[in-house]
Amino acid sequence: MPPAEAAGLKIPCSNPQILQAELDALSAVLDHPEREDTWEKMEKAIIRFAGVTRGGGYKHLDLYVRGVGNKGIGLRIVDCMMSDRGRLSGVSTDLLQTMAPRLASHFLPLVHLYLPPLVRLLARPNKVFFKRAEKVLATIIQHCPLPSILIHLSNGLDDRSDQCKRAAGMGIESAMGQWDSHRWSAKDLDLLELCVRKMATDRDAEVRKTARRVWALFSELWPERVEDFTNPLTPTIRRYLDIPADGGPSKPKPRPGLRPRLQAAHAEAESSRHHPSATLTQPVGVSRTRLSQGPEPHVLIFKLGEV
Question: According to the UniProt record, where is the region Disordered (predicted)?
């Protein structure tokens, strides 16, 4: 099936019985080991199920989430995502791109299944794999405001691949800019602070720049945590975050209007989601918007067409 045709494929799924039959059919195909003579069958079966998802299969929520989860076909989809065969990995990752916006917060039970392989794809040296994974991560962050995603982005910061760490850091920055602050629990903020410390001392200069932007957002969103966070920091981390070593305020100077601009940028991205003609602002699916002077805070804006 041509990629353009597959991207818009919709197969009506009006009741749970149809969805179950489609899940069973996909499972039967993915049960076969990955070989040269099964690749095409697997690709076509996954493309078909993405069409079922677009056709309303996801609306049978409990059955759908269970069907694509650990106890359903989820582990086999993950295996296909991690395949060295580009087309098979591509259609499997595209399925994630299709399901996540439709499930929104109901994607929560699937986070720990699909985020680890997605982060591993960010470390692939092949740019096609990387950019595809980067785009899907952006979609998940935009449509699924779930702080449990942060656990896996934090793991991405530990990867040996600089491009993986950069993508994970920008994902954290994007989540902070797009999600309401009340979604973050105290435990989530503890992990976020750990991520800031990791990024601030990373060997890669781009990751350290992201750390400064994340810190600026953090200090604006949760000023009550700033003092406890900064007091025990080492001089090295203070320097990388532009925090005075001593004799000065530990909190960075406030940047007027930063949060409202982030919210406006998010609203623009949400508006574009409802217009089929919208396209990605860059080929990689990422556009950085300058929000203020000084260390450059960014929010990832992904103008998505139909997924």
Answer: 242-292
